[in-house]
Amino acid sequence: QPPKKDAKKKKAEAKPPTLINGLTKEEISREQIEEHVVRLREVLDKEREERNYFQLERDKIKSFREVTDRKLEEVKAELKNLEKAIEDDEAHHLVGIKVFKQKMKHLLCEHHNTATELEADIATSKDLLEDEQSQLEADLYKEMMSILVEMQESSCEDVFKELLLVGPVDKKDLELKNMKEEFYALLNENKEFAKRVAKTENEYSRLERRSKSFSQSEVLQIEMAELQSSIPKKIYIAKKQADLSLRPLEDELAALNDHVEKIQAQLHALFSASNLDQTAVTEITHKVEVISEILALHLITLLHDGLICISVLQTDHVSF
């Protein structure tokens, strides 16, 4: 190691002299030194200017960085506030969704309860309509049977015997008047029955409109389909009952016509053989014809009313 230090000292001692423009201090003149100093001062001034310029640029960059850092902090604060606002909005939105789901649940529950009540009302109305229809059919059947019983009790033979036995013509006219009043009373009863049928039709139409307003419900559609499928069967049963009720009336009408013709023939033979007054014979014959026409008209009216009831039921089914 000591030899190395000696080598360094020798190298330092062997350093070449400083040159100015290629000349040593001993070789350069005073003027050249002054010129060299002037040049060095110019270079120094230039370096100072550059240093000042770079210091200004550094200060600008430093101030710009400070402004940028401040803006960055502001942006970070705004971003933090925005994230907090977003979190608050999300929490509020979740609360709103929860409230909306709860309201929707209540609405669905109310809708279900309303649909259940409407289904119960429709079922009750359907049962009432069926009961009323059955009651109307039973009333019609009872009325027809009562008319048949009354006609059987007051047979045509009793009427003709009374015509032959009663003396005064005024009494016969009074009886004819009473029979006409009874006939018109029966017609009024038939009109009342037609009104009841029309009322039933209106009630049925109202229930039908009410049921159509709930056609979106599958349960109601199934009930309507069952009701619609049961109506033809009921119409068939009602028609069959009406046919069974009308058939005795048709037979009674045919028998009545035959009986009247026989009695007219017997009266004609009796009056021809007994040499009675021709005017009295004509009057009695006319009375018999009037009574037979009234009875026949009454039976035809009953048949017509029965057919009207059947056609009304069929029309209701078609409109339904």
UniProtKB/TrEMBL annotation:
Record's GO cellular component terms: Golgi apparatus; microtubule
Highest taxon above the source species: Eukaryota
Keyword Coiled coil: yes
Biological process (GO), any one: cell motility
InterPro entries the UniProt entry points to: GAS8
PANTHER family attached to this UniProt entry: DYNEIN REGULATORY COMPLEX SUBUNIT 4
Name the record gives this protein: Uncharacterized protein
